[in-house]
Amino acid sequence: MSTEHLEYTSGRILLNEKLLSTDYVKQRLRRPSEDDDLYRSLFNEFSLTKNMNEEVFLHYFDQLCTLIVKSKGSINPDQFCRDAVQFYSSMKGITKSPPNTIGISKYLFEVLRTNKTSLPSEKIMISFLMTFGSWTQCNSFKDSCYNLLVSRIQQCCFSLDSFSNPLSQRSLMLDKILERSVSQLGPILFLYAYQLGNTNVYSNQDYDMPRTLKNFLLYCAKSTIFLLKWSTSVLLVNYFSAADYSQRSHNFSNLLPYIIDLTYQEAGNTTIIKVFTKLCSLPLDMYPLALISKILKGAPDINKVLVEVDYVSFISNVINDYYNEEEKYIAEGTSFKLSLCLNILAHLGMVNDKNKLRISSGPASTLVSNTLVKHLEILKYMRTSECKGNIDIRIANKAIYCSTNLTFAACTILRSLSRSASLLRSQFKSDNNVQLLIEILSVNGEDLYVPYQYDSEEKLKSLILNILANLVLELNSPKRSINYSVLLGLVRGFLENGKSEELVCASLSLLRNSLFSSDEFFIQKFKENVPATLILKYSKSKNDKIKLSSLNIIRNLFACSLDVSNYIFDEFKDINQGPECKFIDFLKGELCHSQNMEIVLSLCYIISNLSVWQPVNKIFIVKNEGLMMIMKEYLAKPINQFPNTDLAWSIKSCISWIVMNVLTNGSMEESERICHVDLEDASLADPTQRAKLLISWGFLNSLGDMIHSCDDVDSRLVLNKAFVLLNTIGTTLH
């Protein structure tokens, strides 16, 4: 191509005004001998350029789409569709704005419907629709896919009316027709499956596939013809994933045996998979193994069925076949398949500890460890000066994307294994994975010389924090081997940044679990590295999940010791400029306004833990009539007015403990009364007076009523103990 068509400026390719002129493009396209030269030259130049001018591409793309539609067949769309897919594939991760493909998509559907094109041309058009279909008008695309499929089935010489009821047995004549027609039906089935699976664009909850088509697809899913079995299975899994949720588990259970069989056949049909994946631009999540992963995500309980057929051994064999630790690089398709294997094993490990032990001693263990090492190496290289000067952005972007996905899958396995007490005491104590996780956690994606993939990094780091949260919860886990100063420094950074609610939740979960066992070592590290003011700030969050986690941290801190309780009071004074009793007012306000019963329970536990320590705390709690009356209302509230029965009895039991706590530990010394309590409240230093006040507010009657209606043995025992203690102390004569 001559230089009049292209200008090179600072490494960018720019099209001059002449080339962008509609008239000029029309003139070139009228000369068939030059059409291919124009397309090929432009797309080759674009695909080889490191820094792409997206605005120019979108403008040119739109003009060509318009011209092809207006040509009404005089311009063959094959070449454009092929090159557009090739070009866009090279631009993944860089192109942010969607091209306008509505007009040409409608045109291509019409061409496909007439069935006058060759099969190779048809696959090229379907490849284009697969690549750009998510940016078209969703409902019209879905209807076009459905109409095209029904039309193609009819063209194959049979009617869907014969499938008004499921066929009880195979039809030899129908199977022969399907065998002859599979090359025509397969691509259309994949296209329809693609649109049904595009749940990011539209909701398919209200879509009910016609019964005749559903029966036809179920018949095809049982076929011995691999391509037919594969394409219909993808379609059905995507449909059941998006359709009626209440029937999802049932539908998947019926379909699962055929999907399992499909994955067993995958190894013997790799050529078919590669050919159709390339020709039709099939997404990687249409791999047979990906269907198992989707089913497990939609109906996790199905993992028991896979365990029964020893799917752990099958997946382990797949890993052995595809993973070679001597190879320096892993291809995108292989990386995706290995990610699927790890995700599936993570689900199977949830069934029981026996499976966890099998997985941890199998090939997945080596893959997980090597994946963490390799990902850390990639991250470190991507922030070096050597990388900055030599990197191809598109290649680096794909490398980070594949590595992050595989690492996420590896961490999914680790999270599953970290829920096993025996593995916490053995594997996590002996291997280097914990240190690798912390190092990955410490890398800031914004420091890399590649486009920042914030969502992927956020999800990966949140998952790593959840793994570490499981590790510190186990009393015999390798707590002392963790560099808590580094880890808590990272957690503090995530909390101070606060942009990602997912990272904040995961960080708070780690702190909550670490404080669960009242470990003095960790408490000291916490006080040195994480200001309690951060936790108190998040306890006022509008996000219930964040609020609950932060309140549970406070709950665990108050359960530690008197010194820690005083530490929280001091931190609270720093942000509220008030005495200790203001903290009680804060708890009262939260308890009064919360509609989330888990938050209510957490607040009650904080008050319960607070009431264990200094007698002065008991007085501050009891003298706050507003707080006590809110708790009395929860104590007296009928069980059927709570959203959850177990949670209701937990709240009532916790309030019963509060009643017992404020009545025990004797009375205060005279010096304590003078220092901490106003003269008008001095009488509350006597437990008897506190008991009489609670009785006057109706606590005794409420406890008695609940004992009679309680059918939970443990809760009735606590309620009864509180009733007896309150009645005994409150009716004592002096």
Describe the structure.
By secondary structure, the protein is an all-alpha fold. Among the domains are: 20-135; 137-158 and 167-200 and 207-309, no CATH class; 573-733, Leucine-rich Repeat Variant, CATH 1.25.10. The chain contains 40 helices and two strands. The chain is elongated and about 100 Å long.
Q: Kindly estimate the percentage of residues that lie in beta strands according to DSSP.
A: under 5%
Q: How does the major sheet shape up?
A: 2 strands, antiparallel
Oligomer state equals single chain
How would you sum up the global shape?
elongated
Structural class based on helices, strands and sheet pairing: mainly alpha
Q: What is the helix content?
A: over 70%
> What do we call the CATH homologous superfamily of the domain at 573-733?
Leucine-rich Repeat Variant
Identify the CATH class of the domain at 573-733: Mainly Alpha
Ranges where pLDDT stays below 50 over 5 or more residues in a row are: 1-22, 28-35, 200-204, 667-676
**What is the end-to-end distance?**
107 Å
Computed Rg = 33 Å
Mean pLDDT: 81
Please, how many helices? 40
What's the total number of strands? 2
Strand order of the largest sheet: 1-2
Fill in the CATH topology of the domain at 573-733.
Answer: Leucine-rich Repeat Variant
